[in-house]
């Protein structure tokens, strides 16, 4: 697990001295153990390393001089042992214990077809000197991030936006469509980011850049290739167990200890059972709850699961000010704006885990893969009505996060005329699905290519890597994703509940009654914090923020604050403006500024 960065230049162009060093310095939190640089002709590569596999021999960049290849990689190739055995028959012998070296040898033998053979979470840059090209590749589900910007004389790339900001020819500018998407849907989906000109390498793709800076997209995987299956519960349960065991065996490969984030829900409890079943032993597990709030948590349920499997459990009960003191650092760590309140406790859990661990398992993906969310099974009339009012996505992902009255009152001119429409990524995903898929499968797929990589996995990767911790998400092994997506609807939802097959398979392994408890989710008591005098103070400070003045109508802020204080809504809107104001200071006004893990959010809202 690492941070990577670099560039490819147009012929005759020289980078400013120290370019690679400046880029990788911004990614030091992702890889505090080691760093390395490579420069060959027009190409420069850099990596900051978090050592997980091949601790002593995995220094990067990795080079194959005989083949003219150089590589920097972030993440894990979980099936590196199997691939190395197959590659050995072709005369390719690994010299290190690093799983990343396998990428070099696989490419040398198979070219871009090597991507179809890799199983894992990864983003990498590979320089092929003989073919005069640079390859930027990202794993199938987008677990690991990779950004790039195409400039007149170069293409630059990095694991995080913050490493690219200093290389842009002008001061960073906000993308109006991406900002509107964040406001409406709590994240911006697709290839475009919140910074104009900076894009994401799409999941399941490789970007091939030649010496003339021409870009070619090579798609090597898509969930749209999955065909629905007619399969009964008994065989499906057997196959699920086989696939879960195979994924867990590979995900447990590490040369360092690992732990588990244990929420008390279904997915993390299933991971606990699998870790125990595969001999993880007395690993450390972590759960979080809150003091001084009316919101229920799952601390007791998580503790029962940990005790059942003999884990060394850490129960964190947090004060509200402790949670919300994470706001500035979590915004800095995330790079991208998202209104996922769970980033705050996740950041605290990551810091706690980093005291003794480099790897933590987490249950992301279980709902998307096995149909767990309530939004996947709406009443027929609701689905019909939403589809009629906002066509294009079968009534799915139709509702914005901001109330219409606050959009009309607060949006500035640049936000009211944005194209394309806010729902464009969801409509495009829905319309791309095969004709023989069910409504449920379309909903799963739409989330798998929008909300999962551009929201949920941003939280998992960036909050953990903000403290040098690798998050492993076995439910997003692509073999499990294909299996879950292909299942008949009746094996996903029954009796008003989701994840039926997963629950059925896991029930004998878990503490009695665990699966009958109501789902609480990973909630954060924002409403208990952002009210009263705090709301008034936030409103005052927002009016003094350059980003708010540029994109919104500050004169409408008092009405929003008054509504919030009177309990008449406005909480999401006020919190979203707070996030944008702090993000604007960190990424537009003062790139390079880094908050400490615990700060007073009020100190970071108003512009200097």
Walk me through this protein's architecture.
Belongs to the asparagine synthetase family. It comes from Marichromatium gracile. Pfam families: Asn_synthase (PF00733), GATase_7 (PF13537). The protein has 608 residues and is α+β, with helices and mostly antiparallel strands. It is built from 24 helices and 17 strands. The strands form three sheets. The protein has a six-stranded antiparallel beta sheet, with helices on one face. Strands 4-5-6-7-11-12 form a six-stranded antiparallel beta sheet, with helices on one face. Helix 9 packs across helix 24 (571-589), helix 15 packs across helix 16 (439-449) and helix 21 (532-542) runs antiparallel to helix 23 (557-565). The longest helix has 19 residues, at 233-251. It is globular and about 70 Å long.
SSE diagram, text form:
Blueprint: E1 2-9, H1 19-25, E2 34-40, E3 43-49, E4 62-64, E5 69-77, H2 80-88, H3 101-110, E6 120-128, E7 133-138, E8 147-151, E9 154-158, H4 176-185, E10 198-200, E11 205-210, E12 215-219, H5 233-251, E13 258-261, H6 266-277, E14 284-290, H7 299-309, E15 312-318, H8 320-324, H9 327-334, H10 343-354, E16 359-361, H11 366-370, H12 380-389, H13 404-410, H14 413-416, H15 424-431, H16 439-449, H17 451-465, E17 470-472, H18 478-486, H19 500-506, H20 526-529, H21 532-542, H22 546-551, H23 557-565, H24 571-589
Parallel strand pairs: 13-14, 13-16, 14-15, 16-17
Antiparallel strand pairs: 1-3, 1-9, 2-3, 4-5, 5-6, 6-7, 7-11, 8-9, 8-10, 11-12
